[in-house]
## 1
Amino acid sequence: MLLIKIIFLSTIKVTKKAKKTLIHSANEMKHEAHGAQQPRHIDKIGEGASTAQRSDSLVQPINQRFPKEPRYSSSWIRVCLSIFLLLYFLIAEIEVKAGELHAIVTNRDVTEKALSVNSLRSIFSMHKKTWSDGTKIRVFVLPDDDLLHQRFSKEKLNVFPYQLRSTWDRLIFSGTGQGPIQVNSNEEMLARVANTPGAIGYLWTADIDENVNVLEIK
């Protein structure tokens, strides 16, 4: 019985000593592991720094190739805006005046000096066919897409060019009348009206000369 007790106490002492040895070994291993991780951490920092340097070296040539857009000052923007507005109102004024810079012209042998809007519309719709003295009316027009023809139609006759064209087409297709004589330029318009008895047409005022009469529209 005494022998068993001695063996049991000896076993406890050995177990405690072994436990201390194991704890001491574990602490040493933990310390060594912590020390081994520090150089790797430093290496990662170094690698990160080198990566950032490489990124900066790549960004610099890109910035040199694509420089930032300059910032315009507010005064420069105001100057540009003022110029734009000036040009806009100047163009608008020219367009308004352009409506007054064309006139109805006739051959010099035509005795009429003035016409009403209704009479003018009747002539260019090809319904009125003779002047008051019996002379046959010869109507000359420019192409539908010509600026002068468009202004003449809208401002003198109060109709659109396509409406005039529809009126002429109905007369032609029905066989009840004929369309006007189309010319291709202002110069041709002037020449044809000046040299055709009973002719009527329209011109920019700058193209009118002494070879034609200007017809007043009341």
## 2
Amino acid sequence: MRKLLLTRCTVRMTRQTGVKAIDTLRYALKKKPIITAVTRDTDMTQVLSSTANVVFLLSADIISITETVERLREAGKLSFVHLDLMTGIARDASGIRYLAQKVGVDGVVTTRSNLIPVAKQHDLITLQRTFILDSVSVDQSLKIMHDSRPDAVEMLPGLVIPQVIHLFASHQHTPIIAGGLLSTKEQVQSVLGSGVIGVSTSAVSLWKWQDDGFPAN
């Protein structure tokens, strides 16, 4: 398997040269749009051998995170840590600095909009996680996107995106990643067809589907 070989050095260089960091993520997802969302350490072997270019670490801890990120880097994959779910590392500026400088993650996922600009200062790709439950949450998501200006938004539950994505036309420059409640091939195809750049899932069956050739070139 050919490695993508996109690293935090690439992300840092894009920031410094004025190229948008999201272009790195777009490139990684262009042919492999399914993101492996890892909730169990036991799945890591399968993740490392998968064709996925992007990995979300949803259960990271201070003991194993450095080794995990290094293994993902060696496999040519971009690593994103979910700040809200990790353990043992402060969810503040010092924690983000540690993840960037000591661990070497490529990006972060968080619901906390105040952490987005902090992560950008450390050359991390930033993903704002939002939940679409009703019209109020749509308005709140639009405000968050305007205020924090993340590189991309992870929107949950992914199943609703085809019905609501038009409501985010004013922020069409901000890419959307779908996550949550996506468990079938048909659901993934529908969501990707609505205009998102990727789908994050912990469903191993969907990882394997991508490994078997989805999407067809």
